[in-house]
Structure of TetR/AcrR family transcriptional regulator:
Amino acid sequence: MKAETQLDRRARRSRQAIKSAFVALVLEKGYDAVTVMDVAERADYNRGTFYKHFMGKEELLKEIRDDFLAAVSDALLDPYPGLERIEADRIFPSTLLLFELIEKRKDEFKALLTADKGMGIELMNALRRSMKDDMRIELEHREPPVDYEIMLSYQLSATVGVIMYWAETNFKYSARYMAEQLFALNRNKMKSIEFTHKPE
């Protein structure tokens, strides 16, 4: 059993080294320019070791993307184990955890954005699935009533938009600052709009 555990650990280390090498190379050269040989050499393995774990760079990319999106979905629920309900003004912990996760894995996220042009949509869909499967937002009664699916799309678009802006600025703000900004945006209402063009 001990030998099997050591093999499992060795396999996990090998897979992680390959993933780390791939991410670094995508950030350096772009996804299309990266070859299996490049990844194997950067990870200090041969091609055979790479193919022992992954069929090709497409499968490697998919595993990194799937793991990242699963972690993003988990971040929404992890702060509230055992709770059945929480007030909307107390969701900051999950907002912060989401941004901290992305900050911790920012190289991975940047590589995914480089390799997968649809990553923003993938991120939104992962959040949507988690929110639809694991929770339901209770809305205040207003006239006219707000359609739930439209509201959900609006909230998700805003969240992903803020995350994408953060990535575009190369994560120049801290995760806490971004979480605070998103939380404030969700609670603020527009007061007025001032037009900056001068009438002729």
Observations:
- The CA atoms of residues 67 and 156 lie 20 Å apart.
- The chain has two domains: 1-54, 62-187.
- The longest helix spans residues 2-29.
- The chain has a mean pLDDT of 87.
